[in-house]
Design a protein that fits this description.
Number of helices: 16
Radius of gyration: 25 Å
CATH architecture of the largest domain: 3-Layer(aba) Sandwich
Largest sheet: 7 strands, mixed
CATH topology of the largest domain: Aldehyde Dehydrogenase, Chain A, domain 1
CATH superfamily of the largest domain: Aldehyde Dehydrogenase, Chain A, domain 1
Helix content: 25-40%
Strand order of the largest sheet: 15-16-17-14-13-19-20
Structural class: alpha/beta
Shape: globular
CATH class of the largest domain: Alpha Beta
C-alpha cells in the first residue's frame, strides 16, 4: 500500500508515530493509501526546519522571491493534468472541477509574483523639520496553514504562496483525507528554486493542530474548515500570542426576484448547488424565491434540471459531479435529508441510497431538492455540505433579504434580478461578506480578498489579495533625522512636526 509521508527540509520525511489515516478512493469506496499522522515532536522538527531557513529567505530580495513564484506557477501549469487527476482520486470531485481547483491556486501564485510591488512601504519626505518618515512591511517568521479536504490545491496556495512570497517560511497541515496534492505542491515548489525548509508539509489530526497552535516559534496561523473548529483555532491560537485568520462554515443564499432571468438563474444555481457534490464553502445550498409564481416556476424547473444531472466516478468526463469524500460524510448528508423530511420540508428529489453499477461501494449522494423549507428548521440553520438544495419561499424582497442577514453564517450571498437599484441596495445592506449579483458563486479573484462575516470567519483579516499581504507581514515605521550643527534642546518637548 502506498504511504504518504511528511515533507520536511526539502525531502520526504517518514513519520514515526505509528499512527496512520486511511486515504480512500471515494469513487470505489476502497482504501488506496495511508498517511502518517505526526507527533508533537515531528511538528517541532518541521518548525525547526522552517526556522533555520527563515533568516536567509527573509533577506532574499523580493524580486528573487518573485522569480521562484514565477517558476512555481510555470510548473503548476505544466503539471496541471497530473495534479487534477491525483486530486480527484482522493477527493472524488470530477477531473474538470479539480482543474478549476488547481487553477484558482495558480491565480494566487500569479498574484504573489507581484510581491516586489505589494510589499513596498510608504515614505513621507519632510514630515517635520529635516524629518522623514517611512514604513516597511517585514515578514513574521515561521507561519502555518491548516487546510480542509474540499480544496486541497487552491487553499494551500491561498495561504502559502502569499506568506512565502512575503519572506516567511511555512508549515502546511493539509487534510489527512486527501494529502497527496499538498505534498506534490511542496515538491514542485522545491523544484522551482525555493531553499530547503521554506515550505514544509506535516500530516495529522488534532495532535498536529494543537502542536501548531501552541508552538512558540509559529507567529501566524491561517485556517479554513468548519465554524466550530475555526472558533477553537482562533481562540487557541490567539491565546498563544499568534495572529490567526480562521474561516468557518457557510450557508449561502441565492435570492431570485420575479424579474430575474429564470433560464440563467436555474442554470447558475443547479451548478452552484450540486457542483463538487455541494462540498464547497461557496456552494449555494439555499434558494430564496420571492412570490408564489417565482417559487413554483423555479422549483418545477429545478426538479427537471437536477433530475438530469449525471453522478459518476471522478474520471467520468460526462459526470456533473462525483462522490462525497467519505462514507462518514455520506451518512451525515443522508441523515440531514432524513431530518429535513421529519421537520416538515417537502422532499421533491431524494438522493439517498444512490449507487452506481460497478461502484456500489462508492460514496455517492444523488441530487436532493427540498421545497417549503422554514428558517426555524435545523437543516436550514446548519451547513449540510452535500448535494442538497433547499428552497425557502418569501413574499417580499425585504423578507428575502432578511434571511441571509439574520443567518449565523455570512460567507456569501447572491441575488438574481434585472433591477439595478434593487441589486445595488441589496449589496450595500446585506449582512454578508461576499455578494454576487447575477453571479451564483461570488468568489473574488485572487487580487481581491476572500472572507465572510459572522460565524463564517474569525479574525479581522481576509485570505489572499492585499489583505493576505497585510496578514503575513508586520509593519515597521521609521522616523529619521540627520541633524547638522546645534539643533537646540528639545528632548522634553513632544514633537508636533509643526
Amino acid at each position: 500500500m502506498r504511504d504518504v509521508h511528511h515533507f520536511i527540509s526539502g525531502a520526504a520525511y517518514e513519520g514515526q508515530s505509528g499512527r496512520y489515516g486511511d486515504i480512500y478512493n471515494p469513487s470505489t469506496g476502497e482504501v488506496q493509501a495511508r498517511v502518517a499522522l505526526a507527533t508533537t515532536d515531528e511538528v517541532d522538527t518541521a518548525v525547526q526546519a522552517a526556522a533555520k531557513a527563515f533568516p536567509e529567505w527573509m533577506t532574499t530580495n523580493p524580486q528573487r522571491r518573485a522569480r521562484v513564484m514565477f517558476e512555481f506557477k510555470r510548473l503548476l501549469e505544466a503539471n496541471m493534468d497530473e495534479l487534477a487527476e491525483l486530486l480527484s482520486s482522493e477527493h472524488g470531485k470530477v477531473v474538470a472541477d479539480s482543474r478549476g481547483d488547481v487553477q484558482r491556486g495558480i491565480d494566487v501564485v500569479e498574484f504573489a509574483c507581484g510581491i516586489p510591488h505589494l510589499q513596498k512601504g510608504e515614505f513621507t519626505e519632510g514630515a517635520g523639520p529635516g524629518i522623514d518618515v517611512y514604513s516597511m512591511r517585514q515578514p513574521l517568521g515561521v507561519c502555518a496553514g491548516i487546510t480542509p479536504f474540499n480544496f486541497p490545491a487552491m487553499i494551500p496556495c491561498w495561504m502559502s504562496a502569499v506568506a512565502i512570497a512575503c519572506g516567511n517560511t511555512f508549515i502546511l497541515k493539509p487534510s489527512e483525507k486527501d494529502p497527496s496534492v499538498p505534498v506534490r505542491l511542496a515538491e514542485l515548489f522545491m523544484e522551482a528554486g525555493a531553499p530547503e525548509g521554506v515550505l514544509n508539509v506535516v500530516h495529522g489530526d488534532k495532535t498536529s493542530v494543537d502542536a501548531i497552535l501552541e508552538h512558540p516559534e509559529i507567529k501566524a496561523v491561517s485556517f479554513v474548515g468548519s465554524s466550530d473548529i475555526a472558533q477553537y483555532v482562533y481562540a487557541t491560537g490567539t491565546a498563544h500570542g499568534k495572529r490567526v485568520q480562521a474561516m468557518g462554515g457557510a450557508k449561502n443564499h441565492g435570492i431570485i426576484l420575479p424579474d430575474a432571468n429564470m433560464d440563467q438563474a436555474v442554470k447558475d444555481i443547479v451548478g452552484a448547488a450540486y457542483g463538487s457534490a455541494g462540498e464547497r464553502c461557496m456552494a449555494l445550498p439555499v434558494a430564496v424565491t420571492v412570490g408564489k409564481k417565482t417559487g413554483d416556476e423555479f422549483v418545477e424547473r429545478m426538479m427537471e434540471e437536477a433530475s438530469n444531472l449525471r453522478v459518476g466516478i471522478s474520471t467520468d468526463p460526462d459526470a456533473h459531479y462525483g462522490p462525497v469524500v467519505s462514507a462518514a460524510h455520506k451518512a451525515k448528508v443522508e441523515d440531514y435529508i432524513r431530518m429535513g423530511v421529519e421537520e416538515g420540508a417537502e422532499l421533491k428529489l431524494d438522493g439517498r441510497g444512490h449507487t452506481l453499477q460497478g461502484y456500489e461501494n462508492g460514496f455517492y449522494v444523488g441530487p436532493t431538492l427540498f421545497d417549503h423549507v422554514k428558517p426555524e428548521m435545523k437543516t436550514y440553520k446548519e451547513e449540510i455540505f452535500g448535494p442538497v438544495l433547499q428552497v425557502v419561499r418569501a413574499e417580499t424582497l425585504e423578507e428575502a433579504v432578511a434571511l441571509p442577514s439574520n443567518h449565523q453564517y455570512g460567507n456569501g450571498v447572491a441575488i438574481f434580478t434585472s433591477n439595478g437599484r434593487a441589486a445595488r441596495e441589496f449589496a450595500a445592506q446585506v449582512n454578508v461578506g461576499m455578494v454576487g449579483i447575477n453571479v451564483p458563486i461570488p468568489v473574488p479573484v485572487s487580487y481581491h480578498t476572500f472572507g465572510g462575516w459572522k460565524r463564517s470567519a474569525f479574525g479581522d483579516t481576509n485570505q489572499h489579495g492585499p489583505e493576505g499581504v497585510r496578514f503575513w507581514t508586520k509593519i515597521k515605521t521609521v522616523t529619521q533625522r540627520w541633524p547638522e550643527g546645534d539643533i537646540g534642546d528639545q528632548a522634553f518637548v513632544i514633537p508636533t512636526m509643526g
